[in-house]
Every structure is written in structure tokens, then in C-alpha cells.
Amino acid sequence: SQQGEEDPQALSIQEGENATMNCSYKTSINNLQWYRQNSGRGLVHLILIRSNEREKHSGRLRVTLDTSKKSSSLLITASRAADTASYFCATGGATNKLIFGTGTLLAVQP
Amino acid sequence: NAGVTQTPKFQVLKTGQSMTLQCAQDMNHNSMYWYRQDPGMGLRLIYYSASEGTTDKGEVPNGYNVSRLNKREFSLRLESAAPSQTSVYFCASSVEVTNYGYTFGSGTRLTVV
């Protein structure tokens, strides 16, 4: 069973808009990661946020983590058609491998 | 900079046949993983190898075996394929099991008829 659940399952926006995806998880974690998967391809690591961090930025990506609510969000600013992909959160424990959620399918309309 | 290389990319098997999926990484990573991805299920961990010489079961290990041949290579074997094993299989690697991002291969699309 998945540790993380992304919300929404699907999101459609216009180019230039911001996209926000959320991830909720059940047990305590050491870190949380976000990945992107283009159709028919492997996953690409986007960002890792540790349990003692609250916010992290990477280019147009902003990730927040609220361990008290067991939730994280991924914000993509000024989205582009090339951002169209599935986005997965994955949680890692202190000694455990990553467990992935079921993903959010983002469609950015040109 | 090949990263993680998986072979083959596509395979069709008949029920009961066996096959081995190959995975190799050139990043000197210690840990390697096999996941399967099914529609609506996300990625589920089959087996992983935290370091050379060790392997451990993941969430869905039944029907599979693995071999960590050396630090670079981690293979997944289906001894007697079943239609339920139709899936896309991804190999990944990381510096260590915890606190590092994973690098994924491009996947093997397996159909069992």
C-alpha cells in the first residue's frame, strides 16, 4: 500500500499559471521527495526536503513540508507546456527505502 | 553519462516462461531497487539492495527473485511468468537507501499473455 497520496489526481491549467499539488502521508518520515514522470519515461528526481525543513526552492519549484499535518505541497510557478507530466511524492524513513504515492497528472495547456 | 540502463525495453512472454531483466548503473551508487508500475497503483517496490552483497524484499516480492551481481548490476528474474506480472518495471539506484534521490532507468514494458 502507498504511504503517500497525492491530491488532486489530475490537474489541468493554462500556460503561465501556477500549479499546486499536495501529498499526505501516514507515518513519520526522514525525508520527502518529489519526482516527475513524462509519458512513457522513467521518473526524474526533482527535490528532496528533510523532516527538519519547512520549505525548499529549486528554480520554479517550491516545496513545503508540514510534519505536524503529515503533508507536503509542490508548487510549480509560471507553468509551461513542457511541465505536462505526472508528479509523484515519495517518503523515506530513517532506515527505509522510498515509498511512492499514486501521482498527480498535470496537463498544461498552451 | 548513461546513468541507469535497463534491458530489454519491451518484452512479451507466454505464461510460464522465465526471463531476467537487467539493470546497470555507472554512478558508483551503493543502493539499487526494482519497482513495478501499474495504472492507478503508482510505483511499488519489489526488491532492493542496500549495498553490494545484500538484497531485501519490498512490498510485492512474490514471483520474483533478484541478484546483486556486483556494485553496478542488479537483475530481476521472473521464474514462471503470470499475466498478473504484466507491468512496467523500473530499476533505480541511489548513493544510499536514505536521504538521497533516486536515479531511474527508462523502464521495461513487460506483457505476459
Description of the structure:
The complex is a heterodimer of chains A (110) and B (113). By secondary structure, chain A is mainly beta. Chain A has no helices and 11 strands. Chain A is 0% helix and 57% strand. In chain A, strand 6 and strand 7 form a beta hairpin. Chain A is globular and about 40 Å long. With 113 residues, chain B is mainly β. In chain B, strands 2, 4, 5, 6, 9, 10 and 11 form a 7-stranded mixed sheet that branches. Chain B has a 4-stranded antiparallel sheet with strand order 1-3-8-7, with no helix packed on it. Chain B is globular. At the A-B interface, strand 4, strand 5, strand 9 and strand 10 of A face strand 4, strand 5 and strand 10 of B.
List the helices and strands and how they pair.
The complex is a heterodimer of chains A (110) and B (113).
Chain A: E1 4-7, E2 10-14, E3 19-25, E4 31-37, E5 43-50, E6 55-58, E7 61-66, E8 71-76, E9 85-92, E10 99-100, E11 104-109
Parallel strand pairs in A: 2-11
Antiparallel strand pairs in A: 1-3, 3-8, 4-5, 4-9, 6-7, 7-8, 9-10, 9-11
Chain B: E1 4-7, E2 10-13, E3 19-25, E4 31-38, E5 42-49, E6 56-57, E7 64-68, E8 74-78, E9 87-94, E10 103-104, E11 108-112
Parallel strand pairs in B: 2-11
Antiparallel strand pairs in B: 1-3, 3-8, 4-5, 4-9, 5-6, 7-8, 9-10, 9-11
Largest sheet of chain A: 6 strands, mixed
Question: Distance N terminus to C terminus of chain B?
Answer: 36 Å
Morphology of chain A: globular
* Number of helices in the DSSP assignment of chain B: 0
Number of helices of chain A: 0
Radius of gyration of chain A: 13 Å
Largest interface: A-B, 28 and 26 residues
Please provide a brief summary of the model.
The complex is a heterodimer of chains A (110) and B (113). Chain A is an all-beta fold and 110 residues long. Chain A is built from no helices and 11 strands.
Notable traits:
heterodimer, A: 110 residues, mainly beta, six-stranded mixed sheet, five-stranded antiparallel sheet, 0% helix, 57% strand, globular, B: 113 residues, seven-stranded mixed sheet, four-stranded antiparallel sheet, 11 strands
